[in-house]
Amino acid sequence: MWIPTEHEKYGVVIASFRGTVPYGLSLEIGDTVQILEKCDGWYRGFALKNPNIKGIFPSSYIHLKNACVKNKGQFEMVIPTEDSVITEMTSTLRDWGTMWKQLYVRNEGDLFHRLWHIMNEILDLRRQVLVGHLTHDRMKDVKRHITARLDWGNEQLGLDLVPRKEYAMVDPEDISITELYRLMEHRHRKKDTPVQASSHHLFVQMKSLMCSNLGEELEVIFSLFDSKENRPISERFFLRLNRNGLPKSPEKPERHCSLFVDLGSSELRKDIYITVHIIRIGRMGAGEKKNACSVQYRRPFGCAVLSIADLLTGETKDDLILKVYMCNTESEWYQIHENIIKKLNARYNLTGSNAGLAVSLQLLHGDIEQIRREYSSVFTHGVSITRKLGFSNIIMPGEMRNDLYITIERGEFEKGGKSVARNVEVTMYIIDSNGQNLKDFISFGSGEPPANEFHSFVLYHNNSPRWSELLKLPIPVDKFRGSHIRFEFRHCSTKEKGEKKLFGFSFVPLMQEDGRTLPDGTHELIVHKCEENTNLQDSSRYLRLPFSKASLLGTNNQAIKATKESFWITSFLCSTKLTQNGDMLDLLKWRTHPDKITGCLSKIKEIDGSEIVKFLQDTLDTLFGILDENSQKYGSKVFDSLVHIINLLQDSKFHHFKPVMDTYIESHFAGALAYRDLIKVLKWYVDRITEAERQEHIQEVLKAQEYIFKYIVQSRRLFSLATGGQNEEEFRCCIQELLMSVRFFLSQESKGSGALSQSQAVFLSSFPAVYSELLKLFDVREVANLVHDTLGSLPTIMHVDDSLQAVKLQCIGKTVESQLYTNPDSRYILLPVVLHHLHMHLQEQKDLIMCARILSNIFCLIKKNSSEKSVLEEIDVIVTSLLDILLRTILEITSRPQPSGSAMRLQFQDVTGEFVACLLSLLRQMTDRHYQQLLDGFSTKEELRDFLLQIFTVFRILIRPEMFPKDWTVMRLVANNVIITTVLYLSDALRKNFLNENFDYKIWDSYFYLAVIFINQLCLQLEMFTPSKKKKVLEKYGDMRVTMGCEIFSMWQNLGEHKLHFIPALIGPFLEVTLIPQPDLRNVMIPIFHDMMDWEQRRSGNFKQVEAKLIDKLDSLMSEGKGDETYRELFNSIIPLFGPYPSLLKKIERETWRESGVSLIATVTRLMERLLDYRDCMKMGEVDGKKIGCTVSLLNFYKTELNKEEMYIRYIHKLYDLHLKAQNFTEAAYTLLLYDELLEWSDRPLREFLTYPMQTEWQRKEYLHLTIIQNFDRGKCWENGIILCRKIAEQYESYYDYRNLSKMRMMEASLYDKIMDQQRLEPEFFRVGFYGKKFPFFLRNKEFVCRGHDYERLEAFQQRMLNEFPHAIAMQHANQPDETIFQAEAQYLQIYAVTPIPESQEVLQREGIPDNIKSFYKVNHIWRFRYDRPFHKGTKDKENEFKSLWVERTSLILVQSLPGISRWFEVEKREVVEMSPLENAIEVLENKNQQLKTLISQCHTRQMQNINPLTMCLNGVIDAAVNGGVSRYQEAFFVKEYILNHPEDGEKITRLRELMLEQAQILEFGLAVHEKFVPQDMRPLHKKLVDQFFVMKSSLGIQEFSACIQASPVHFPNGSPRVCRNSAPASMSPDGARVIPRRSPLSYPAVNRYSSSSLSSQASAEVSNITGQSESSDEVFNMQRMLFNHIGDGPLPRSDPNLSAPDKAVNPTPSSWSLDSGKEAKNMLDSGKLISPPVPPRPTQTASPARHGTSVSPSPAGRSPMKGSMQSFTPSPVEYHSSGLISNSPVLSGSYSSGISSLSRCSTSETSGFENPVNEQTVSLSTYSVPEEPVRKESKTPPPYSVYERTLRRPAPLPHSLSIPVTSEPPALPPKPLLARSTNLENGSRRTEQVPRPRPLPRKVSQL
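RESULT FIELD:
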């Protein structure tokens, strides 16, 4: 039986459970579970990560944890009772876990690894906490580390800032909002601005001295030097190096590492230097022989300097090498560091050995204790501490120091009878009063233990040596008296003995007779002469002598005066025990000299502060002792001295001595009667304030009042203890009188001078410190009343003195922060006066920062939900006094412009945030009663209205995202909770006071607007939160959006007929609310739309306004990324209108306006679909077809369905920007053209719109035209640009703007040039089908044709589409998909290439038009596309598949032509026809014949410099025919069986037969042409082709083209050599016209030209000889291989080796053969006779192989070499000696003949609609003979091609099958480049019907 659990409520899963049992709950290790029931070893409950799924699990899998239960029962909440830091850590790590994996997915490797390390660290620290073995301090430390890491991770992952108090999370419900704000702000500021450390330390580690020739030990001395003041600022760090330049004691780190401590921030500047002096220990001269002298001297070696500025970057300088310099003269050694700093190069240079000093340096920040913690390893290994010279900036009490610093400065010595100067060494000893040497008290520097004596370094031959060596003497205080220092001077000989001879000494006592120590400063000491053997051990003998020159002034000792020798030292005492001040000593010994008391008290102000604080307790004892002695006489003086000492402690340097004074007052002070005198003197001063002219001294007194009161109170307590509380009343009266005087002086207003107000300010700044002292003697209420009266006496005029007002406020602030204010009794007394002053300041908007701080403190004390009576009364007072002014202040400061400086901006934000927190605190504390009182308190409705408007405005400001930093979600949620609670209270007031006749639109509008932006806040969108965060928010606050939504609904229902005021204004805001994916909120909000439609219908009979507003708002909201898929479904007319709200549909269906309502919903739904697609597409990074297609879909919708012009134009420009970004310039131009079409050439002014300025319609249209032309130009769509150029030129012309007209005409001309000169690539077109429900709406189950990019083939396009739709599946067939594919929940792509069918065939069929022009019409303005799919119908014949090979031809018609505003358009209509095998065969042959004609024509007219394409084509056709190509058609369709079974195909069979014969004719002529141009190395292949052609002919049954066969005319549509085309026929050669291929796959750029021979008998003979040779099949194979190689590489120019030199010579004489021969032939034909044309004389010149050298620019390859468009060039003339195709020619047969046999059959004309039918007749041309000429002459390069050749050459007759009809009229000019669908550019609606391509006219022989 399942029993509810009592204690087992919460646990952690310790082993994963699969939940395979019935009702089992699947659990993973580490999950936390809440347990509801138990039964026999099983628990029932749920995992906290998914509380909706409940189930059972074994109890053995759960580790139970302690937890407390809230709300026992159905909705109980379990909270673990573990440490809050552990709870937070656990939940945070769970949240991080999922996000951490996402980092890996997003490839953010750096953060991924850093977070991994942090998580491991946190887990490690968590273990330490859970084990529970940590000490209290260590636990705090671990928690600090944990929280720091949690905060870091949260910040990196963009999670919320967690408010904490002592490392534990704070529940915002348990503290006041102001306190919460402070915690948040403190953590935020801590994160933003690291606190600047006031104290800094320099870590130095000496590594080595790198030098080539050391060999001696060294001393290295580091110190810090201030170059500005020219003095050292630190002690010295001294270390010794061995002979190798390494530290002598490497095992003792303190010997080579030091920390220079206590550097102030002022000392971190660039003129502070680290100086390093290096002294060597060895011989006098560095280069002396080793045996010269055994005595070791200290000698200068070098110096290095480094500015501390180099360390300020914060980097550790690990291996710094300092250059070591040496001075040029030793006498400069004392200032070498200064010279290096000043860069006086003449005085120093690099040491001879080029030494370098390797050191490691690091600057550390923080106090020394912090450094010890953070860099513990440094201290544990050992480091010497190097102090600053003297006391640090802050002297700490208890600091024990007694250091005397002596600097050995310089000496002046005589030669002593020697010819050279001395080498002087100074030795120093400390001698005590007994004449004994004090041992171990001479410190050379930190790093080295103190020594007994000191030896200075020696300067060579220098009688005025300067040393400047600093030493520290840490002599104990007890040894100071009677001790002295002795300096002995010795001359160091450099001779072999190396002896040191004593020649003098000096001494100086450490303490004077009166007890003062040696004064600081430089002392000139007397050098007493002595001999080497003088015994100085007995110090009493010389101590009687004078020691300094200063002491000689009063004596007459002439002998000593006469001496010229002197020795200078500088002393400086740093002691906490000894003084050099005589006045101080006199004061402390006042009892011995009573007569000097007055003088001593007067001089106390002159004594240095550090001397006073050293003897603070003694001094205070002295002062109170004198006061007890004679209070009448010395009372005032003692009081002044006490004031001076108290104020001295205010100085930051001595601030730390305040606790010393406090301790003194508590423990040592014994003046039980002092209070009377102190009160008396203080009152005397206060009474004099108003009269005194000079206030400085009085202000000093007032400044010291805190400690004066401390002494008064302590004295009174001592007195009470001693007397049992006597004179209590008298004391109270004294205090009352004193404060009465204070009140009087405070109430005075400053007249004229500000001295009085300054005194008032001084008093107020220190007065709050007195409260705690008064509380020691008086009751809380008494003190509160005293303070209230005192503060209440302040003058209330605000404009008197600003500085006084600020101090007044600070006093109020300190009062609120004081202990007195924390007591509720005293608080109630003080609150009115505090609020009064606050109100005044807020009224004037002054000192807002201080006001905010005071208010925060006030609210911090009023805890949330305090229902104590006192608190409620306080809230009453605050609401009455401050609520209104608080609202006004927030409005004022948020409407100000934010200051520019970052520090100021921070301050500004702080003060705003604090005021907001105060307002929220106040509102949270207010109860029903407070609200009721507040609302009842307004006397008029106007006041209430103003208040409501004000508070709604403030709430709108509070909701702004910038109000708090983005990670302050906790603060925002608290604020929102307060706002919604307040709004619920205030909405009642709105309903009661501003409805019906009192209706006020403004206040209701403000209310609704606030409610909408409240719901739309980002911080309330729970769907964006992590599950755990969402759960926490819902548990604490619920979904506040739903609450506010219900409130909106309720208020809307109350409006009644006033609803009309808000239609359509509120449609947008309410729509925004419904876009939030919260079902409950939508259910509440959407019925309001029905209501709006209903009221609008009632008012105006329709709801056009509602519709327009709805659509506008939807567009703007969806663009911002709001809304979701389910929302689209909500807008549906089938399901309940706006979602699952049952009554709504019924309502609409009952309405009279049902149809228009449903229509509106349908429109909105369709718009939603497009907008959602648009939004989803725009989220992607790169511009792709999806984005463009989506925008086009939306743009068309706005134009066609909604007719919203402004939206339409906006989306035109969005589409334009997308095209530009994707570099679709043509599409961009077409897009902008849509806007251009909406404008007229008028002067109507247009407003500023998008990026366009305010301008006239004409100007905007002109700008658009120019932009469009520019884009057409960039997209190489020049023909379209020309049309626009003409249009704008017309406008310029009509305005006589000839300047711009000229520019436009030049632009138009440049576009024509580009058409002719620049290459354009023809794009591929692809058909794409998008099938399946997963595609966006605008693509779903539709097919499109897409214009590919440059060079893009099918495979590349397919890959691009699959990249755009990564989830799509590519279909591998071209069949139409079935319904299952359409309805599938997937994406299917079907892609194949399609062929464009040009709209305008006229230009393409016209002859003589260059390909550059035609290429435009082939791929522009295309509506129709074709795709052929071959398939077999019936049984497939394995022997001959052509029998059953059908073709399914699909024609696709688009909604718009390509190119257009998009690269792809939808297919509007598809037509499918099936072509029978016979029709297919006819088309294949027609296409192949056309291809052959084109290639032959190009080759024949020398347009094709490379013959390989023709060779391949011929080979392909002939080879296929021989191996079964055409013969397969014969087998399939020419058999009796087929003819009988398909009688309807008779004409088609005939047509097929004609095409076969035509192909044979074409091939024959092609072989003839091929023979002329084929290179020598390809001749074997040509022979093979000729042989195969005969096999093919025989297979076709053709022996001769007999007259009985009716062959169709062979027509070359692309232009063949023309005759009689122009009025001057002789001026054009047969090759004069350029022949451009019609997009043949084999058209190659013409690069080389080949020499050709005529089909003469000689040529025939030559071929006969070639073909007569035996050719192996291998050779032919090699020929074919060579052919393919030629295609890949550009062939080299070749000449025909068989042509003779005379053949290649230029014959300048024009031929006598004229066109008359053509006329004769015509006449002969007309008369029915057959006459051979006259034979033209054969010219000697043939085409030159060198003509490829003429200026021909080969066009670059197109999509592939097979698709290049040919560049125009002028071919060389070629002569033909035959007027028809050759039958049975010797060239083809291989037999030798002297002429060409005539054709037995010529082309006959076919009946057409354009000419009368002509009777068919056999026309035969007789052969004409050609005189034989020798051949096979040596080939030579002829002269370059002459321009005259074209006029000199006469055209040769052509074979009739390649001829064209002759016309006597000149040809029409080529059409101007116009857009085939110019209507598309102008109106863009109609499509011209496709004109059927005309068949070529039949030709007659007579037309030649």
